Fold this protein.
Amino acid sequence: MNDALIRYLPRVDYTPCWQAMRTLTDGRTADTADELWVLEHPPVFTLGQAGKPEHVLNAGDIPVVNSDRGGQVTYHGPGQTVIYLMLDIKRLGLGSRGLVSAIEQGIIDFLASHGINAANRDDAPGVYVNGAKIASLGLRIRRGASYHGLAINRDMDLSPWQRINPCGHVGQPMTTLSEQGVMLDRHTMEQQLVTLLAKRLGLTPRTAPSPDWYNDSSEFPPAQQSPAP
């Protein structure tokens, strides 16, 4: 098992976080530790390298950032956990497909531990519950290492997803952990998911402090709660 530093960052703006991922990846050596950054972003739409602007239907007041990850357009915001995975995939013995499969299976394991039957799809990366997407994936492989990662919807306002074609799929329904009856506090949920992801990836998680670049982006309100049924 390889050690991995796990950094829990309550909230952070997208662009400086992305820049920090690239800096870490570009400066890696064979001895650089793997890292997982667990965080939330303020509301933002991001377009992947192959992203088509027409999949952004009506951004409104939410900024759109052109990113270097794979995939089309996605949304990040309060009530969603993002996990960025800076991994030496050669050292882990994983190819790009194996990495995607391990991440998806880690999420599926987490959902199964709470009685939710979830699945991945060959034609669209991510994890789905009865056809509704609960977790999205977007990765970049560079110099034998990965960055970017996954986003899982905890208890978020889903209306911004209606302003885009999620991951380029018209009318793709979205769902959250809370809609599926999982009402964990954020920290507990993130620790459980990290544990199961690490197991699938062959990593031993070690909690680490916030990095020097981190600046708490606390200007946005707490996660919006789903309305009562």
Residues 96-112 form the longest helix (17 residues). The longest strand covers residues 132-142.
